Amino acid sequence: MAKTAETATGFQGDKLYQERARLALPILIRQAKAGQTVSYEDLAAELGMPNPRNLNYPLGCIGDELNRLSKTWRKEIPHIQALVVSKGTSVPGKGFDPFLKNRGKVWKTSEERKAILKTYIAEIANYPYWDEVLVELGLQPAASKIDDVIDQATSFGGGEGPEHKALKEYVRSHPECVGLPVGSAAGSVEAPLPSGDSIDVLFDRKDRIIAVEVKPASAPIHDVARGLFQCVKYRAVLQARADFESDPRPIETHLVLGGELPKALIALRNSLGVSVFEKVS
Questions:
Q1: What is the distance between the alpha carbons of residues 45 and 68, in angstroms, rounded to a whole number?
Q2: Domains of the chain: which residue ranges?
Q3: Residue 55: how many CB atoms within 10 A of its CB?
Q4: Is CATH 3.40.1350.10 the classification given to domain 147-277?
Q5: Angle formed at CA 11 by CA 9 and CA 104, multiple of 5 degrees
Q6: Which domain of life is it from (predicted)?
C-alpha cells in the first residue's frame, strides 16, 4: 500500500486502474459536496468492483493527479481520496499516509492521526473548487439515473403488512442485526420523535442511540429509496434533540432490508451516508 502513491500514475491512460480513477473521482466529489465519507466496500460496489482492495491503485492515481494539478494551479488541492474510509475505523487506511506526509502532516499516535484526518476531511468538504477540478480533467459530475424512483418515493407509503411487522419484531429482538453485541437488550418499536414521526426500531443505549428503518424483501425500489431518506430525517431530528438536551451520545441510523439493496440505489445510499444491512430475516 505504501508504494501506491509512487506507482499509480498517469490519470488519462487506458489501464483499468486509470479508468476506475476517472469513474471514482466524480463520485468522491459528489461525496465531498454532501459532506459524506464512503467506505471502501461501498465505493467498490458503486464502481462495480468485486474486491475493495483493488481500490488502492485508482485512489493512488487520483492522488497523483491532484498533486500534478496543484502544481499547475500553484494552489493546494486537498486529497479527496481521504473520504474513502474503513468501516471499522472511519478513517482511510495506511496507504493514504504518504499523501498526508507530503502535505507536512505528522503524528506520533493513532489518535493524533485520526484527529488530523478528521480536520483534513472537513477541509475536503469545504473546498470550493471541485467543479473546476472536473472541468480541468475533462470529467462530468456523477450522474443520477433514478430521478423517477425518487419522484415515486415522495408518494405516501402503503400500510404496514405482516411481512414488515415480522421483520420489525425480529430486528427489535435481535440487536446484533445492526452491529450490537449478541445478547444485548431488545429495542423498542414505533418510537416517537418530536417531529411527529415514529422510528420502526430504536435502541436507546448508554453509549449510543441507534434508529432503524425496516423494509421487507417485498418492498419496491421506490419504498427502499424512501427508507434511505427516512434514515436521514431520523438522524437530523435525533441530533437536533440531542444538541438541545446536551446529550453527547453518538447517533446511528440504519436501514434494514429483508432483501438486497437494489443496485440502482447504491449511489443514493453512498451520497446520503446511510448504512444498510441486507438479507435480514
A1: 28
A2: 4-136, 147-277
A3: 24
A4: yes
A5: 60
A6: Bacteria
